[in-house]
Amino acid sequence: MLRLKALVSRPLRPGPALRPRAPLVAHRLQSSGKSYLDSLTTPELLGYGVIGLATLSKSTLNTVISLFPYAPLWLVKLLVYRNYCGGDNLAQVLQTGDRLAQRGIQNMMLSLTIEACDGTQTSVPVSQIVEQTQQSISQVLVPHTAKMISKAADINSVPPGYVALKPTGLIDDAAEILRNHNNAKYDAGYQQLLSNCRDICRVVAQENEKLAKQYPGRTAPFVAAVIDAERSDLQHGVYRLQRDLFREFNHGKINVIGTVQMYLQESSHILAEEEKLARKDGYLLGWKLVRGAYIHSEPDRTVIFATKQETDQNYDAGIAASIANMSSEKPAVGHLVVASHNRESQLKATQLLQKADARVRANVVLGQLLGMADNITFELMNRYDVKNVIKYVPWGPPKETKEYLLRRLEENGDAVRSDNGWPFLKQVAKALFRRLRHQS
Ligand SMILES: Cc1cc2nc3c(=O)[nH]c(=O)nc-3n(C[C@H](O)[C@H](O)[C@H](O)COP(=O)(O)OP(=O)(O)OC[C@H]3O[C@@H](n4cnc5c(N)ncnc54)[C@H](O)[C@@H]3O)c2cc1C
């Protein structure tokens, strides 16, 4: 299952040295007392109210967590589902895209949450996962992106639609295959994994070609496949997988994006090595840079930086180096997703983009998980006039998304508690009251 550890809603604090691009908007927001909560729908606000209530004390939260597996799905869906999940079918995911667009978030990174929890057997056949992922590109990302472009004044102000591919969800016995990808005994398995990913990337490439004919002035891809990063013992297999896909699909344009976890001590070396290989073989790199989600389950802790501060420095350095590379005369990096809930990192990236040219700006996208860091997403858009923001949207069968929801509840619970449950609940209540007053 997805194991994305996440930071959540913290109150807005005054910005650092970064100067807001749209101070008037910011002023209006502050003087009207509006918060990011005002940009959510009423059911989403009520969902946050429920989460606030569930996390008022440690014992309340523990009770909710232990009862959650027994809660009927209809109740879960009624209360908190839409805060974190895009839906259980493609029509619902399209609606989620529309809802996000109303908040000014023009695109999504879709993730079908069916995979092998233990890296062995997926809960539905892999062929079905491949097929549904392909459908999510053609039936959701393509029409949604085209709709956003048709409404935009500038076709390059709409970020691409992404489809996230989790390598452990795209082949049975994925962990063994990825760990032993260089061993001849596992070669057939690796080739099958590559072929499954290739079937999805081919749809991405075909859709990009079709849309490029319609919108020749576009400088970023319309849609892209993103390979998610896994536990570090599987990562060298994943690096090979993403490299094989870059080599096949990224000649002169971006269709595939790989992920590097910047909490790994070797990450800057990986970025440099991949750049050498890309230059040698003449393909472009697309990167999603994350800090890394597996710090608590990593069997060999020494592969990760010893301190959070070192990870932070390395993350920001990786983002700065990628943007510098993209801005150079002969770039090897063609696209970058800054996937983080860290406000400082997002503001630093935004500051660098204010100085970059239009082609680079269209190819750097800031991403957060649906239902997480909504205040940061809101601040980036409204205070710094950022357009290139997307949300990572999990979708899929209710049983699997329920497990995903439980982890979001635990993580959001921690964050709500550390921000004190009552003040958060009061903010939600005030936003609901403002809404009622406005309607009456
Ligand atoms: C759109 C999106 C896509 C993602 N995709 C992936 C993915 O494919 N694979 C993946 O692994 N993760 C993924 N993540 C999760 C990501 O790796 C982080 O776990 C999560 O975003 C929290 O980090 P942060 O940058 O948001 O913020 P922060 O809260 O500032 O950073 C927390 C992170 O810092 C690091 N850290 C914390 N304490 C220490 C310490 N003592 N020493 C060293 N490092 C420390 C850990 O990585 C921790 O997760 C994704 C996140 C987003 C938003």
UniProtKB/TrEMBL annotation:
Record family assignment: Belongs to the proline oxidase family.
Gene3D superfamilies per record: 3.20.20.220
Keyword Repeat applies: no
One of the Pfam families matching this protein, by short name: Pro_dh
Function of the molecule: Converts proline to delta-1-pyrroline-5-carboxylate.
BP-aspect Gene Ontology terms: L-proline catabolic process to L-glutamate
Protein name: Proline dehydrogenase
A Gene Ontology molecular function term of the record: FAD binding
Regions annotated as coiled coil: none
Gene Ontology cellular-component annotations: mitochondrion
Native organism: Ogataea parapolymorpha (strain ATCC 26012 / BCRC 20466 / JCM 22074 / NRRL Y-7560 / DL-1)
EC number(s) from the headed UniProt entry: 1.5.5.2
